[in-house]
Amino acid sequence: MALPLRPLSRGLASAAKEGHGGTGARTWRLLTFVLALPSVALCTLNAYLHSGHRPRPEFIAYPHLRIRTKRFPWGDGNHTLFHNSHVNPLPTGYESS
Amino acid sequence: MTHQTHAYHMVNPSPWPLTGALSAFLLTSGMIMWFHFYYTTLLTAGLLASTMTMFQWWRDIVREGTYQGHHTSPVQKGLRYGMILFIISEVFFFAGFFWAFYHSSLAPTPQTGGHWPPTGIFPLNPMEVPLLNTAVLLASGVTITWAHHSLMEANRKESAQALSMTIALGIYFTYLQMSEYSETSFTISDGIYGSTFFMATGFHGLHVIIGTTFLTTCYFRQQLYHFTSSHHFGFEAAAWYWHFVDVVWLFLYISIYWWGS
């Protein structure tokens, strides 16, 4: 009671043929090196060129920001996980740096 | 009768569903103990138990499929349905965070200044690193498609090359996001803006890490000759998941980074 063999969907010879409009590996390799990676390179350059340090915003003790209804379960409970003392003020203002 | 006369997979009894359920309980109760009582033992045990469950369960699936031949066409069809349904459930998960973002940003409250972004929030420029992140993920979508076609054309060298480039782009994205997180002038505690921003992008970042891990597993399996040019569902599942992660980013970029700035 053998199960019928599933016919192979693509023969070996058709592996080289990339179909109408060319969607085989060769096309995607071309897109990778001609479009995708150069775009990443250009955007990297753009981000790097615009990355200079900006003047940090003045500290105003707004009640809707720097909320501390419960202390964080790490450190002194007053610093967020990715705290950067240069740009992130505590509820009482920027730290010394 | 010493052999099955059907094409389906009657899985042997396994302890991993039980250890998975136990680890889920440890993780949830562990999070509560950590957040409320600063006690981390349960959570650590939960992380260890869930990691071991995942490793051993998926290892068993690879054994059953690749080495024991249980993944016939109807079985593979079931696996495809399963992965699709899982990804749909993840879409709903992210829909919640997008709902929260739009709820708060379409009708900003007077307490935050009556506009979006709220007073005192200085959002990231969408044309700098966020744009780069978009290019990185879109490029990784191109490279993974190249990898898939190379795999189907039985080109070992190129499929390994393309897959490793996809993984490298995933790592680059994670690195860029982590450095962005350290540079933002706003934090998760900065009101509703901070909450919606970091919950949505944070869970997305976690999914990028999960996707990168899945792709890396596929890379090692490919090196070990697990895939054939016509049977490589593990790779396809990883590719579907990766495209899903990319699409979520596009929604994040357009909604939070661009419209929300």
UniProtKB/TrEMBL annotation, chain A:
<keyword id="KW-0812">Transmembrane</keyword>
<dbReference type="GO" id="GO:0016491">
    <property type="term" value="F:oxidoreductase activity"/>
</dbReference>
<dbReference type="InterPro" id="IPR036418">
    <property type="entry name" value="Cyt_c_oxidase_su6a_sf"/>
</dbReference>
<dbReference type="GO" id="GO:0030234">
    <property type="term" value="F:enzyme regulator activity"/>
</dbReference>
<dbReference type="InterPro" id="IPR018507">
    <property type="entry name" value="Cyt_c_oxidase_su6a_CS"/>
</dbReference>
<keyword id="KW-0999">Mitochondrion inner membrane</keyword>
<dbReference type="InterPro" id="IPR001349">
    <property type="entry name" value="Cyt_c_oxidase_su6a"/>
</dbReference>
<dbReference type="GO" id="GO:0006123">
    <property type="term" value="P:mitochondrial electron transport, cytochrome c to oxygen"/>
</dbReference>
<keyword id="KW-1133">Transmembrane helix</keyword>
<comment type="pathway">
    <text>Energy metabolism; oxidative phosphorylation.</text>
</comment>
<keyword id="KW-0496">Mitochondrion</keyword>
<keyword id="KW-0560">Oxidoreductase</keyword>
<dbReference type="GO" id="GO:0005743">
    <property type="term" value="C:mitochondrial inner membrane"/>
</dbReference>
<keyword id="KW-0472">Membrane</keyword>
<protein>
    <recommendedName>
        <fullName>Cytochrome c oxidase subunit</fullName>
    </recommendedName>
</protein>
<keyword id="KW-0809">Transit peptide</keyword>
<dbReference type="Pfam" id="PF02046">
    <property type="entry name" value="COX6A"/>
</dbReference>
<comment type="similarity">
    <text>Belongs to the cytochrome c oxidase subunit 6A family.</text>
</comment>
UniProtKB/TrEMBL annotation, chain B:
<dbReference type="InterPro" id="IPR013833">
    <property type="entry name" value="Cyt_c_oxidase_su3_a-hlx"/>
</dbReference>
<keyword id="KW-0496">Mitochondrion</keyword>
<feature type="transmembrane region" description="Helical">
    <location>
        <begin position="79"/>
        <end position="102"/>
    </location>
</feature>
<dbReference type="GO" id="GO:0006123">
    <property type="term" value="P:mitochondrial electron transport, cytochrome c to oxygen"/>
</dbReference>
<feature type="transmembrane region" description="Helical">
    <location>
        <begin position="197"/>
        <end position="220"/>
    </location>
</feature>
<comment type="similarity">
    <text>Belongs to the cytochrome c oxidase subunit 3 family.</text>
</comment>
<dbReference type="Pfam" id="PF00510">
    <property type="entry name" value="COX3"/>
</dbReference>
<comment type="function">
    <text>Component of the cytochrome c oxidase, the last enzyme in the mitochondrial electron transport chain which drives oxidative phosphorylation. The respiratory chain contains 3 multisubunit complexes succinate dehydrogenase (complex II, CII), ubiquinol-cytochrome c oxidoreductase (cytochrome b-c1 complex, complex III, CIII) and cytochrome c oxidase (complex IV, CIV), that cooperate to transfer electrons derived from NADH and succinate to molecular oxygen, creating an electrochemical gradient over the inner membrane that drives transmembrane transport and the ATP synthase.</text>
</comment>
<dbReference type="InterPro" id="IPR000298">
    <property type="entry name" value="Cyt_c_oxidase-like_su3"/>
</dbReference>
<dbReference type="InterPro" id="IPR035973">
    <property type="entry name" value="Cyt_c_oxidase_su3-like_sf"/>
</dbReference>
<feature type="transmembrane region" description="Helical">
    <location>
        <begin position="159"/>
        <end position="177"/>
    </location>
</feature>
<feature type="transmembrane region" description="Helical">
    <location>
        <begin position="240"/>
        <end position="260"/>
    </location>
</feature>
<keyword id="KW-0812">Transmembrane</keyword>
<feature type="transmembrane region" description="Helical">
    <location>
        <begin position="37"/>
        <end position="58"/>
    </location>
</feature>
<dbReference type="GO" id="GO:0045277">
    <property type="term" value="C:respiratory chain complex IV"/>
</dbReference>
<dbReference type="InterPro" id="IPR033945">
    <property type="entry name" value="Cyt_c_oxase_su3_dom"/>
</dbReference>
<feature type="domain" description="Heme-copper oxidase subunit III family profile">
    <location>
        <begin position="4"/>
        <end position="261"/>
    </location>
</feature>
<keyword id="KW-0999">Mitochondrion inner membrane</keyword>
<dbReference type="InterPro" id="IPR024791">
    <property type="entry name" value="Cyt_c/ubiquinol_Oxase_su3"/>
</dbReference>
<keyword id="KW-1133">Transmembrane helix</keyword>
<dbReference type="GO" id="GO:0005743">
    <property type="term" value="C:mitochondrial inner membrane"/>
</dbReference>
<dbReference type="GO" id="GO:0004129">
    <property type="term" value="F:cytochrome-c oxidase activity"/>
</dbReference>
